[in-house]
From TrEMBL:
Any one GO molecular function term: metal ion binding
The family this protein is said to belong to: Belongs to the bacterial solute-binding protein ModA family.
Secretion signal, residue range per the UniProt entry: none
Protein name per its UniProtKB record: Molybdate transport system substrate-binding protein
Keywords annotated in UniProt: Metal-binding, Signal
Pfam families: SBP_bac_11
Any one GO biological process: molybdate ion transport
PANTHER family the record matches: MOLYBDATE-BINDING PERIPLASMIC PROTEIN, SULFATE-BINDING PROTEIN
Organism: Enterobacillus tribolii
InterPro entries: ModA, ModA/WtpA
ATP-binding among keywords: no
SUPFAM superfamilies (UniProt xref): Periplasmic binding protein-like II
Amino acid sequence: MLHVLAAGSLRRVWAPLTALFQTHSGVEVTTQFGPAGLLRRRIEAGEHCDLFASANAAHPAALTAAGRARRNFPFASNQLCLTVAAHAATAHDDWLSLLDNTGLRLATSTPGSDPGGDYAWQFFDNLEKQRPGLGRTLKQKAECLVGGPESPAIPQGEMAAAWLIHSGQTDMFIGYASYAPRLRQRADLVVYDIPQSLNVMARYTAAVCSPQGEILGEFLRSESAADILQHYGFGRYKY
């Protein structure tokens, strides 16, 4: 039995990935999900895991440098999108006009604890270079409602953007584009792509933390795993 700690944004794709892995290897996997930054702290505090799947490269790299992991490698990519309550957007709006709308509330994940928040802040920095003042304003305006030490858990089966907007906690949410196909199935939401020139690439990276975790690590780099990840909205990582 392998024990895995994995970023929450991998939750939906992880079941088919580990099912195929178990079919090929005969090895069972048990997984706990959470914000990658908080999971890293658990490993640093001594919690055992065989493999850590992070939504960014920094946390696995730090574990490897500290001797807590044997090696680390990227296995998938992701980007950001903007999800907005349908009643808050007009036919004339685009992603930029909505972010620039001072009457709309904006939420993100929590920088430092959740890579989704780190990526949102990088996006704000990119936007600041094109629209001086807007990126800084968005950092001040954004409420960090997901992935922090004190953040409420997202109900099982819910997507953060949909749940936060539907429950009235925000009007807009910047999150991972891998959720966009499912979010676009909801009539109460509108999803906007963020241009490549301003977007941020999330590099999903795994840290192998035990000899037993090597076999799962090799599977994550296989074409079979890449096909499943792509089917669930993740990009193939180009080595």
